[in-house]
């Protein structure tokens, strides 16, 4: 899921590297559906995972194969890279047949390392590392990075071997994915003290944002010192005649047109708003939250995930009402 949510009752959408496609995973069953991005007509279904799909993303390279490829993780314990031409997976990464559910994953920018985070099973939650050219078993398994569900695994775009992970245990970690010694692999750790549902890299490529299950939002330095922490529901914003009150955070995303992080939030009625705030990379930075755009006709319930297609100037969202609206936008974040 692009939002990082693992709810089994919601639909999910994930960005595709193709300019013509968007992805939807039916979480209550197994198939992954591919839609034409311009019309949202279903054009293909993939078999998906034996148990629920949990996360999907499109990558430009994996195992030496170039070109956009859909990759997904599932509670069946596998990460699969899909061949849309054959309608089946071309690569299936597993942990020697073990069915420990995977909640998050990422592929390094060079395509030669895949990392995934598992759900808690017994007293262990694992970070698994694969070479996708040898997918039958992980290269390494780290069990001490986190002590609860690992909800986020994301490589740095500027440092190929740096992996960001976050967990329901309240910890955010930065690890060296090339380090075989587990005791030496974790480089920095930050403790937020609340269950973390989402996290990602800020536009500068070094600082980090995170979101909790309690609708709080935070930013962290590259050494994982806490910079800012906010209740995302607190600001009541006004833009001309428009008043906006946030009920929950959907996700955050960076823009090539701005150095500021865009924060997408929602209402229980299905509305979506795009916010930003001053300089989130400074300790308790000054500046008010700003409302940049409001979409109020797409959904009739909670919005779970978003695809922000900056090049195509559309926002594609998935929600609990089962709809996948396509909303036009033209936004440049300025503060």
From TrEMBL:
Keywords: Repeat, WD repeat. It comes from the Eukaryota. Residues 1-17 have a biased composition (Low complexity). The keyword Repeat applies. Residues 1-25 are annotated as: Disordered. WD repeats lie at residues 66-92, 296-324. Pfam families: WD40 (PF00400). InterPro entries: WD40/YVTN_repeat-like_dom_sf, WD40_repeat_dom_sf, WD40_rpt, WDR89. SMART domains: WD40. PANTHER family: WD REPEAT-CONTAINING PROTEIN 89. This is WD40 repeat-like protein. It comes from Gymnopus androsaceus JB14.
